[in-house]
Amino acid sequence: MNRALWYRRFGQPEAVLSLETAPLATPAAAQVQVQMIAAPINPSDVIPITGAYAHRVQPPRVAGYEGLGRVVATSDALPFSLGQHVLPLRGDGTWQQRLNCSGQWLVAVPEDIADDIALRGYINPLAARLMLRRWPVRDQQIILTAAGSDCARLLGQWALAGGARRVIGLHRAPQHAPRLRRLGIQPLAMHRESEILRLAAQSSLVFDAVGGRLGGALLAALRPCATLISYGLLSGQPLPVTPGDAMAQRFHLRDALAGMSAADWQAEFAALWPLLRRTQLSPLAPFPLSRWREALMLFYQSGRAVKPLLWLA
Questions:
Q1: Which residues pair with 311 in a beta bridge?
Q2: For residue 60, how far is the Cα from the chain centroid?
Q3: Which domains, ranges and CATH numbers included, belong to the chain?
Q4: Most C-beta atoms within 10 A of its C-beta, which of 167, 223, 294, 296?
């Protein structure tokens, strides 16, 4: 029997998620069965439950897009061994104890990668890497919104390593300021609106995870030759674009992966592991699956220094 967090209609996650128990099907010939160890809680896990992406995600579904597991059943034709640590991606939701997934998208975790790194080695790292490849930052001044978030912290660290001249991180909670400084990111509180707009006018790139009023104000303040990359809508509001604004580009990981071959998919992770080995990540706060509501409460907490984690083993 398998326990899983399902949502069978759209709504606020705490209202529509349900912990259910049901038999798990036997894996097909090209599938591997994975026992989940742990799965983080990301905005990209929570926002689809609300219906924000109803045009491409429909219930009923098991929630969760990433996590770490171990192989418990596999075919001799697939290059995986029992007990091997893997990332079961691009299949069924990961907020469950066991799942069957396609062998071609299953990612083997190198033995020297710690579990606390591996379990969050997909959504934010791959998004950050693909964005920085598409929009080079060398010698540029860049701005990050929602700078306390995991993806923004990765963008900031890797942008500086890639030669960015200056990285400015906009944050709401004051607790984020010293954490950002330790990463080499210049913190700037959200209430300092005039300074934010002044710096936006001097910047070449904005990586915006918020949208809404903040994203629109930054876009209007940028020079015509600058670019705002919209990769999230944490405000719940679309990015307002008016004639004469700087260029606005949309990034969504799902779109970036469309059409990617299985070989290229595996190559992306081979390139990510060395980056993650030398990257600072947030501490984790584990919760057993039965306490998923408490994990969500922590996820929503402003200024938190830890990342909530569903412990599934």
A1: 38, 288
A2: 22
A3: 2-120+281-311 (3.90.180.10), 126-254 (3.40.50.720)
A4: 167
